[in-house]
Amino acid sequence: MHGGEILIRSDKTPKNLPKQVSINVASKQDISRIENILEEFSSLFGVTMDEILSRTFYRLTPNAKSPYKQLYTEN
Other CB atoms closer than 10 Å to residue 46's CB: what's the count? Predict the structure, then answer.
C-alpha cells in the first residue's frame, strides 16, 4: 500500500496484511468522511444506518515507519 486509506466494515480485525499496512479501528471522524456513501448504500440496499454502523470499521493506511522498504527489491 503506497498511499491513501481503506475503510473496512468487519466483525474481526483483518488478518494476513503485509507489514507495509497499518490497521486501526476507524474513528468517528473517519466514519463521518464516508457518511454520504454509507447513506447511499443504505438507500440502495435497504439496510438501515443503524445496521451499518453497528459493526466495527477498520482503517488501513500505509505503514509510515517504512513506506518504501522492500517496495521493488527484497532488502
Answer: 7
Please list the alpha-helical segments (H only) found in 1-75. 28-33, 35-45, 49-53
Extract the C-alpha cell encoding 53. Answer: 454502523
Answer whether residue 26 shows pLDDT above 60: yes
Residue 70: which residues within 8 A CB-CB, separation 6 or more? 20
3-state SS, residue 61: strand
pLDDT value, residue 75: 46
Give the DSSP letter of residue 26.
P
Q: Which grid cell is 73?
A: 527489491
pTM over 0.90: no
Residue type, 74: E
